[in-house]
Amino acid sequence: MEDYCRFLLEDFLKSSFSTVKVLIEGAAAAKGKTPNRKVTLFQYVNGEKVSVPFEDEHFYFRSSVEYTNPQLTVEEVQGIIGTRLLETCANYFLERGLHEPNIDDISALSEALKKPPRGYIVPFLLNTDDVEADRYSMNPLKKSIVESGQSAFPAINVRTEQLKIDEDYVKKYDGALISKKETELVAEKLDCCNGSYIDFVDTVKYAQIVELSDFFGMDLSLYTLRMPLSTLAAENKDGLLHYIISESNRDYTSVEAAYACMGRSMNKRTTLLTVPHSKKGFGSKRAARGKLHFENERFHDATVTYKTTALYPNAIDPQDVAVAVCDDKFTVSGEKFSDYSYIETPSSPQFFLYSMASPEDATMWHGVGAFGSSQLLQSYANARVACREGRLLKDLNQKYHLNLRVPLQFNLSPEGLWSHPIHRNIDASIGSVADLADLAHRGMKLEHLAKFG
Fold first, then answer.
1. How far, in Å, CA of 384 to CA of 354, rounded?
2. Are residues 121 and 87 in contact, defined by beta-carbon separation less than 8 angstroms?
3. Is residue 362 part of a domain?
4. Model confidence over 111-123: pLDDT tens digits?
């Protein structure tokens, strides 16, 4: 059998060695800057979820997978493999000194990739648990998600008891978005997670990761962090993410500073910095409309309206659009935002805010410039610069002993994105690709997005 690990490694070193240099320089420069940072991630070991605390100083490199579909996509798999290649090479040369790789280096790196990640740079997956369970019309459970009334729920609150395979979906997208084997795996795991949808999704994805690790000849089981709702639920009011929400909503000036990070004015004030959940369970940011009201400088209240909203189509059928079905309207007082408690007012903060509570020092994006949003990256970078310059969350670094900076931004190069060999969609399930060697032979090309960090 061909050594796909070595093939991908050699191709990566040939096309993307510059990214290794950037990551090494960034990691070396960060040493000693956050000596007291304690981080707890989790991973699955033999199918069991295990917490992994990190007490020593590390440099955290974030990638991601989605809770919007249980099956792994081609895009997600490429992101995981790209992250492992970059992390492993950077850790290796960080210890041995940066030099042009020789045959011995490549052999040593191949062996390192077969083992779990180790070293100063720690790769992890940030899984956003506030998204809809079927956001991109890619979930084989989509019909029951809607029928059970959970299509506008945040993923963390979705229960699996009423979910079942959508046979029409499976038949329509067999070999493009889902495979028979994946359908069987999804059905098998539905009943094994005590009703938790996000536990179920992680279980399915990690089961696939184990198989993919065997095929590609590298350990792809990365650590994981769930945000933002899992983090908020575990915090008290003095927690970091609670502080970020409270301070960004403190008054007109603080909201204006956050709006500036998004490149928006305060004329309409319709963007909620954190989206309160409905008592009916709705929490879809896309389905929520807001209106902020101020009395001079004081944040008086916010009106929140949930309305059935079209989400996104998959890449195979542009007419097959996911939907968040919801209907509710309520008002939340300004004090509930400025003195925030997740227990009292469950809500979903915007990514550019809650990501500042992630330990990430570097990130891996998936095709920014082709599929990813550069606007999201810009607001993400703007917020961190604003914090550093004292324009947003002024006491954040001092209060929580942070050294907040714009993380290094890496990207799956748009021209090197993997896709289904026939349908050419990056949202294809990995199981729908009949010959994984076809993907491996496309190589791995990463780039550094110097514009953003």
1. 11
2. yes
3. yes
4. 999 999 999 999 9
